[in-house]
């Protein structure tokens, strides 16, 4: 993983010595009043160009004198951070700007600016430089959230030949070092003994699986502080195994560790904000490949819990990665157990690429995450853990099959499979996400995305009454 503190190069003190220019952020409803207050030459220019304050529209104003240059950003009717994501590459490269509009939420503006400035340029010889934004002290949490998103996006965008199981585990270790947490990494015999289904998934690859476990406590967290446990599917590349994906289905499978990246981004936000909790992050780092050693259809595998699983499809490997992690995490009886995975195409068919599916056995937690995600413009949508479909996972020779006997409700049955490894009294949230932007939007460049991480952070912050 690259060192992404280059993010902070985007932000500079207004008195840094670099000439600072002004941005006027204008909503559609406020456009008439804004135009009335402008010097005539600028008002006439905006009118002539047809500026309508559409969200993300950026116009450089003609100078009204010898002072700094001005730009106008349209907000439309969008009250989110997203319109500010248009600024970094619409303004001249490396110039420094400050938003001068009264009443603007500078945390929102900073978050949008930083998220919109992200590009994965590591492997290019040269790249366009973004503009810079004057830093404000009240936006530090926004900067921390942007750092977490950049980290997760980098991991998802990294080609699979450069990010295998060992490298993903090392990235968890890097995260632990940054926030003075501990990190234990299991591999080889210890992994086979403690995480047999992860070992089975990784058996077909020349790159052996790893499990990375990060542990951290907030500075105000004592031994009785709430325990938050996170589990992430870290399949660095998914060929499908013997149930081989078609070539088109493999093209984006470097993103199959997107659940791990999202949980790492959530952990980074929690630690940066010093929430008064105890945190455990588990990441199953593995590659699903084809070889003479790979698991086969109709193999039967004994999981960490002792339950046996018949392999109905080797391409349903993500739930096998998570089931051992969930079993271990649930044994610690956390206050809330959250997992995330790029698990099923069925969730995308139901909700599309921009809306992760949320499953939970606790309605209060489910409602809290949905509400928090909506509030911070990082939405999720609940789907049911419909018990009536549970028997579809029955196997004639094992405790369960890893896939349903029905072709319906694939996201639900995948969640029901995972629920078998969570105790009935355990508060649990499962997120089935896409982890990718198919197109560039204002603060969401095409490529990897840590969906739901900001919404989950907001839900945890509110749950534990931590004011930022």
TrEMBL record:
Annotated ranges, domain Cytosol aminopeptidase: 313-320
Keyword hit for Transmembrane helix: no
One MF term in the entry's GO annotations: metalloaminopeptidase activity
InterPro entries: Leucine_aapep/pepB, Macro_dom-like, Peptidase_M17_C, Peptidase_M17_N_1
Pfam families cross-referenced by the UniProt entry: Peptidase_M17, Peptidase_M17_N_1
GO term, biological process aspect, one: proteolysis
Cellular component aspect of the GO annotation: cytoplasm
SUPFAM superfamilies the UniProt entry points to: Macro domain-like (SSF52949), Zn-dependent exopeptidases (SSF53187)
UniProt keyword list: Aminopeptidase, Hydrolase, Manganese, Protease
Top-level taxon of the source organism: Bacteria
Membership in a protein family: Belongs to the peptidase M17 family.
Protein name, entry field: Leucyl aminopeptidase family protein
């Amino acid at each position: 993983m690259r060192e992404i503190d280059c993010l902070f190069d985007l932000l500079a003190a207004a008195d840094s010595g670099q000439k600072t220019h002004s941005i006027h952020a204008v909503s559609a409803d406020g456009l008439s009043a804004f135009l009335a207050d402008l010097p005539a030459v600028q008002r006439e220019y905006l009118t002539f160009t047809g500026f309508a304050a559409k969200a993300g529209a950026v116009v450089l104003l003609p100078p009204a004198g010898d002072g700094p240059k001005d730009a106008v950003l349209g907000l439309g009717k969008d009250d989110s951070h997203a319109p500010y994501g248009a600024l970094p590459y619409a303004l001249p490269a490396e110039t420094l700007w400050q938003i001068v509009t009264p009443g603007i939420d500078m945390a929102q503006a900073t978050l949008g600016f930083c998220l919109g400035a992200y590009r994965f340029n590591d492997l290019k010889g040269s790249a366009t430089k973004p503009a810079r934004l004057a830093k404000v002290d009240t936006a530090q949490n926004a900067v921390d959230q942007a750092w977490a998103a950049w980290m997760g996006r980098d991991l998802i965008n990294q080609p699979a030949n450069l990010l295998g199981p060992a490298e993903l585990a090392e990235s968890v270790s890097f995260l632990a070092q940054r926030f003075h947490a501990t990190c234990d990494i299991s591999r080889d015999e210890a992994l086979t003994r403690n995480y047999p289904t992860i070992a089975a998934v990784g058996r077909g690859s020349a790159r052996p699986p790893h499990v990375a476990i990060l542990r951290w406590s907030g500075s105000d967290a004592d031994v009785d502080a709430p325990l938050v446990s996170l589990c992430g599917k870290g399949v660095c590349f998914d060929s499908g195994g013997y149930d081989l994906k078609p070539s088109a289905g493999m093209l984006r499978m470097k993103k199959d560790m997107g659940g791990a990246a999202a949980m790492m981004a959530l952990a980074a936000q929690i630690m940066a904000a010093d929430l008064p909790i105890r945190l455990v992050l588990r990441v199953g780092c593995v590659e699903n490949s084809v070889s003479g050693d790979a698991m086969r259809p109709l193999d039967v595998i004994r999981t960490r819990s002792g339950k046996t699983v018949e392999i109905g499809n080797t391409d349903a490997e993500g739930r096998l990665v998570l089931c051992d992690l969930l079993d271990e995490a649930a044994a610690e009886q956390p206050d809330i157990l959250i997992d995330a995975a790029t698990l099923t195409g069925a969730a995308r068919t139901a909700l599309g690429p921009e809306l992760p599916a949320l499953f939970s056995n606790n309605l209060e937690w489910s409602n809290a995450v949905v509400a928090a995600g909506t509030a911070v413009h990082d939405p999720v949508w609940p789907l049911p853990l419909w018990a009536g479909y549970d028997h579809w996972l029955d196997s004639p020779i094992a405790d369960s099959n890893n896939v349903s006997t029905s072709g319906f409700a694939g996201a639900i049955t995948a969640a029901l499979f995972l629920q078998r490894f969570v105790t009935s009294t355990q508060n649990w949230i499962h997120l089935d996400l896409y982890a990718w932007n198919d197109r560039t939007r204002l603060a969401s460049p095409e490529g990897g995305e840590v969906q739901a991480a900001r919404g989950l952070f907001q839900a945890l912050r509110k749950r534990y009454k931590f004011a930022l």
